[in-house]
Amino acid sequence: MLYTSTARRMGTIAIGLAAFAVQMGHAETTQTATEEGQLQEMPELTMASHFIGVPYNCSGVSVSIINPELSQKRGIETLTGALSQTPGVFNLDCGGTWQRGSVSNTVIRGMNRETYTLTMIDGMRISDVNMSGNKMLGITNLFTVGHAEVVKGAQGAVFGSGAIGGVVSMDTPQGTDEQITRIFTEVGSFGTFNSHLTSSGKIDKLSYFVGLGYETTENDPTIYNDIYTNRTGMNDFRQWQGAVRLNYEVNDKVNVDFTYRGVDSYLEYPTPYVDYNSWPATIDPHLYNTEDRNHSNLVTAKINAELNDTWTTSFMLGYYNMNYSVHTPEYDFQPNMMSNRRTQIEWRNALKWNDTWTTVAGIAWDRSDYKSANNYVCKDEWQSTLAFFAEQMWSPTESFDASLALRLEHDSVWNNHFTWRYSNSWKVTGKDSPTRIFASVGTGFRAPTYFERHVHAYGYIGNPNLDISESISGDIGIEQKLGENHSMTVTGFWTRIEDEIGESYQGVWPNSYSTFENYSHCTSYGVELAFKGEFNDAWNSGYTANYTFTMPKRNEAGKYATRQMANTARHTINAELHTSPTEKLTLGIGATAAMKRTDYNYEPLDGFFTARLFARYQLTDNVQLHARIENLFDQNYIMTNDYNFGPRQARGLGFFGGVTIEF
Questions:
Q1: For residues 78 and 91, what is the distance between their CA atoms, to the nearest angstrom?
Q2: 528 and 152 in contact (C-beta within 8 Å)?
């Protein structure tokens, strides 16, 4: 049974906390209003953890909000870089191999598979059966991201299939009354060049944002030094990335929103030749070039309307296409090509009955068409999903908020599936309390991917008889203000997945292959600690520090009854300190570390520590100079092991600098 005694206890804790908070919430508030400038006095909304925007400190869901503009000021320019600084997330900048252009191995609270993290862009589900969400996370720059959130835990009730470990949601920036154009240019180590142009503003009732960027890098070919000598020019990455957002206010009750995002990327990386006709197998010292091409477009259109004082409604239509190919020209094989076409329609309604009760309900439909072709197989399939969802929000006092979300999905392949989530937030001593307790418990699921069911290439054979994986998770946390400008958050979490889908190896080499099957279950539990603050000194100094301990365990029959899940780390740490010794100069240092790691084959990896420096100088009112040093101590640590390449090492010491012009 999915709902084990541990799961019941988690649910009881959350519901019991809610009941206790209802009684305590009626007590007279004893805390005076906090002073201006104090942390946690946030009008900031969480837009992704519920069906509508909710003030961050009124949500019982564990969510981290990423500010892309602030991240850029601190030398972080990629989405993977920002994710690597997020509590509960194990993610290495530049993707899973720390080479720019590779996929992102985003592990939220020990949930290690790419299909356990759902990617959302402008309200569209990007994660799909070809796992392109994993690719998008790895190559996205922050210059065209306006708001991003990591919603942790099983979120099937809000987002549907794929949200077992959590959700990464982002949107395109919206223009404001301030018209501003930025030109960003940076050059650096590994033949890196990066340039982005963005412009935003508002003309009468029309707000706009336009962004266009190009980057290229040769990455670090020295990672193959121990094996090969002809590495130069074999790790190139090139990418165009653009975004547009237009928002038109028809009147004070109705607005129309349009977004477009496009990506065209190319990654060339070395692949060894393996002679499978000899025993033992031999690897030719020559490396062949493998070409990885990705092209995608995303378009959304949305109408938001306030029909009356009670009822607001939103209707969205979205379309996403992705074409992806992997090709080694020297081999006598056609490219391995995959494509996805997704259409999504969603109608969402919010009914605010009074200050206590708000109901959100709606319907969503999407259809995905999948194609793949190579020398072994040619597939062309589709599936569609119809979902009905609702969330009831309850705020009996200014200090207590609770919600119950439900979702019923009917899939053309997987039939019906029901998910739920309960959450609550309690400000212990009233509206302006320095202490907030939050908790949630919910379910999720993920269907087998198209790759897992139908692949027939590169030593893989799919299994069309796979079942859906189901999960339940819970967390409970406390946020505590420490003085005027400092805060601490401690969160305990737990997740269990039944019928986990994993790889198994069949046959004897050279006739062996990998396939997929449902294992018994896996669990992950642990704790997150997050600290942040600002010092009221002349140098405007501040800091962040995060630590996550997690125990991700996979249970299966056979030799490895219980072992740590692949591509995970039990301990992750990231920290940053910044200061401004003068009004125009900002300096900072950041560090990331991970211990007790495993590779993709469950084998242990040594821990690592890496540091970075960043600086920004306001030369004039319109010109900023910026510089950063990555992998400050040139740490030569292993990212993962590869059965062809052997150990894949991290990119070495790198220097980068540039200029940003604003007008």
A1: 12
A2: no
Is there a contact between 434 and 33 (Cβ–Cβ < 8 Å)?
Answer: no
Mean pLDDT confidence for 49-73: 94
Retrieve residue 3's tokens.
């709902």
Given this model, what pLDDT does residue 437 score?
A: 98
127 with 162: CB under 8 angstroms? yes
pLDDT in the model for residue 274: 53
pTM over 0.70: yes
Q: Is 407 helix (H, G, I), strand (E, B) or coil?
A: strand
Measured CA to CA, the distance from residue 571 to residue 107 in angstroms comes to 12
**Are 407 and 154 contacting, i.e. CB atoms less than 8 angstroms apart?**
no
Report the chain's C-alpha Rg in angstroms. Answer: 25
Going through 353-399 in order, the beta strands assigned E by DSSP cover 357-373, 378-397
Query: Please, what is the average pLDDT of the chain?
Result: 84
Which secondary structure element, helix H or strand E, spans residue 7, and what is its range? helix 5-24
Q: By three-state DSSP, how is residue 135 classified? A: helix
pLDDT tens track for 274-325: 554 444 445 455 566 778 888 999 999 999 999 999 999 999 999 999 988 8
The count of other CB atoms within 10 Å of the CB of residue 618 is 16
CB-based contacts of 227, cutoff 8 Å, min separation 6: 272, 645, 646
For 110, phi then psi, to 5°, come to: 85, -5
Reduced to 3 states (helix: H, G, I; strand: E, B; else coil), residue 25 is coil
Q: Which two structure tokens, joined as six digits, stand for 229? A: 């000598």
Over residues 396-447, the pLDDT tens digits come to 999 999 999 999 999 998 889 999 999 999 999 998 899 999 999 999 998 8
**Alpha carbon distance 277, 99 (integer Å):** 32
Distance from C-alpha of 372 to C-alpha of 462, rounded to nearest angstrom:
13
Query: Cis ω on the peptide bond leading into residue 335 (within 30° of 0)?
Result: no
Q: What is the CB neighbour count within 10 angstroms for residue 600?
A: 15
d(CA 82, CA 78): 7
